[in-house]
Amino acid sequence: MSYQTILTSVSDAVLTITLNRPEKLNALNQTVLSELEQVVNDFIARPEWRSAIITGSGEKAFIAGADISEFSALDSTGGTVLAQKGQALFRRIETAPKPIIAAVNGFALGGGCELAMACHFRLASENARFGQPEVNLGLLPGYGGTQRLTQLVGKGRALELLLTGNMIDAVTAFNYGLVNHVVPQHELLTKASALLAVINTKAPLAVAACIEAANLAAAGDAGYKNEAESFGKLIASDDAREGIAAFMEKRKAAFKGR
Ligand code: COA
């Protein structure tokens, strides 16, 4: 199948999914999200594909977040619905019965960091940067980031990242346990493929059972529900309108607390 915003290739039963909007740092717009959903569904349905890698096109970004230019049109209900849709897709990735790993080749911000965290585990190139900068827009992460970041790095580190909007580099992400390996960029896909080649020799039912059991360690839906509802409330606030407009106009936001 061919897509507008995604490239796919298969080698040794590993499907590589490359998000391909490098001119917008692979930001997740509606087209990318719906094409990603189709690719993920296809991957899950086809037994000959044993595992998958998600990566970004170009050498600068994995994914620089949700596409902020689409936020301006959203009211509160639209914001909640967007967050719920993204959460459902990312949950589908997390609960896939075959490994989907993130090869983070540059900026993984906002929805990009959230997508990487929904994958079963993560590898990073040396130039990778991670962050949840939604607070700069008057928002919070809406695709599960408040939940998965807390699970992966612990509450204190997660809250520092969520509240400052600061980015961390690949080595810090490794020290936090957010990524399993940091490698030079040209070795990223080779390293990811080598790990998946090992997993692909294992019993598929056992692999699926490990993923399912590990996901149950972090079960509980209250946080996700709350996050999507807050995303809807915040997107209709004056501060979010100001934060989004300031990004689009390339200026500093002036927040007023309402
Ligand atoms: N949504 C929409 N467009 C985005 C984007 C996003 N999340 N991230 C980057 N882009 C666009 C930029 O607007 C720019 O488009 P233009 O060339 O038409 O002006 C292009 O991608 C390149 O980005 P630019 O900002 O010029 O690159 P940079 O190297 O100066 O900065 C970042 C890189 C990642 C620091 C910066 O793009 C950024 O802060 N992005 C937003 C991150 C964010 O807040 N993500 C969370 C969203 S909820």
Give your account of this protein's structure.
The chain has 258 residues and is α/β, with parallel strands linked by helices. The chain folds into 2 domains: 6-199, Alpha-Beta Complex (2-enoyl-CoA Hydratase, Chain A, domain 1), CATH 3.90.226.10; 204-248, no CATH class. 46% of the residues lie in helices and 17% in strands. It has helices at residues 30-45, 76-94, 111-118, 145-153, 155-164, 170-176, 188-199, 204-216, 222-235, 238-248, and strands at 6-11, 14-19, 51-56, 61-63, 100-104, 107-109, 121-125, 129-131, 167-169, 181-183. The strands form 2 sheets. Strands 1-2-3-5-7-10 form a 6-stranded mixed beta sheet, with helices on both faces. A 4-stranded mixed beta sheet has the order 4-6-8-9. Strand 1 and strand 2 (14-19) form a beta hairpin. The longest helix has 19 residues, at 76-94. The radius of gyration is 17 Å and the shape is globular. The model has no long low-confidence stretch (mean pLDDT 95). Coenzyme A binds next to strand 6. Residues 24-25, 27, 64-69, 107, 109-111, 133-134 line the site of coenzyme A (COA).
Annotation keywords:
single chain; 258 residues; alpha/beta; 2-enoyl-CoA Hydratase, Chain A, domain 1; 2 domains; six-stranded mixed beta sheet; four-stranded mixed beta sheet; 10 helices; 46% helix; 17% strand; globular; binds coenzyme A
